[in-house]
Known about the structure:
This protein is of the alpha+beta class. The protein has helices at residues 63-87, 115-127, and strands at 18-22, 25-36, 39-48, 57-61, 93-99, 102-107. It has two domains: 1-61, no CATH class; 66-127, Threonyl-tRNA Synthetase, Chain A, domain 2 (2-Layer Sandwich).
Amino acid sequence: MEQTPFYAESGGRDSDAGRIIGDGVELEVVDVQRPVKGLIVHRVRVNQGELLSGAQVLASVDGEWRIGACQAHSGTHVMHAALRQVLGPTALQSGSYNKPGYLRLDFAWQSGLSQQIRADVEEAANQGDP
């Protein structure tokens, strides 16, 4: 069954973190992937016990982690809009990676960005309406 409260890594956003707890077992969720359609894989660290097939468990997402990941993901959109405002419509995002406290936006450009252009992009992003 394809059910989990955990967001699987996708679209440049890192997966959720959290815990899975059951009778005598505690797992820390460290990664969630969708390697093929219909399959969700959780990578966990076993903190206590052993997870048995068919065991009833409670899965809970770390709310602070999810909020931080969402903020980083939103920041990528703001940064992309600011780049396009300053550099023009050919400044296109080619990838990204976001997790709490971290964002990376990939884009191709014909040269390095000068200190002034970087300052202009930062100002446009901080205006909140690039």
